[in-house]
Amino acid sequence: MSDLTISENGLSMIASFESFEPKAYYCPAGVLTIGYGHTGTNAQGQELQEGDTVTPEQAKRLLYEDVLWAEDAVNEQRLHLTQNQFDALVSFVFNVGATAFAHSTLLKKLKSCDFEDAADEFLRWNKAGGKVLRGLTARREAERDLFLS
């Protein structure tokens, strides 16, 4: 089985749920950030500085680099997935983290090839601080829909 990589469709879906900022800014945690939540370097690979800017195309490339760890986390599970299933899972893992995914009922159901019930598990991950968030609900519905398509 060969490892999959996220498609343009999957990357666009992730970008649609991340806010785009063309100019470097300090996020609430005080970290210099640009594009779709990218930190560390600018589009030229240099240390990110105040005043740096990024085009939407450059930001998408940085986002692709940022999701590589999520791709790896999904691929290391050695699941037999379609491209859409893979894209949905990369989006999910990018948002909730590899550890949460590794211990999730969603993954348990995938490993037992229960894809229909696994798809419904996306919808359970719509809370932060114990509260349902509209943005997370929309993201999980989009991930589920992509997973099932």
Automatic annotation (TrEMBL):
Chemical reaction(s) catalysed: Hydrolysis of (1->4)-beta-linkages between N-acetylmuramic acid and N-acetyl-D-glucosamine residues in a peptidoglycan and between N-acetyl-D-glucosamine residues in chitodextrins
InterPro entries: Bacteriophage_GH24, Endolysin_autolysin, Endolysin_T4_type, Glyco_hydro_24, Lysozyme-like_dom_sf, Lysozyme_dom_sf
Keyword Hydrolase: yes
Record Gene3D superfamilies: 1.10.530.40
BP-aspect Gene Ontology terms: cell wall macromolecule catabolic process; defense response to bacterium; killing of cells of another organism; peptidoglycan catabolic process
A GO molecular function held by the record: lysozyme activity
Family: Belongs to the glycosyl hydrolase 24 family.
Protein name per Swiss-Prot or TrEMBL: Lysozyme
Origin species: Candidatus Anaerobiospirillum pullistercoris
Lineage: Bacteria, Pseudomonadati, Pseudomonadota, Gammaproteobacteria, Aeromonadales
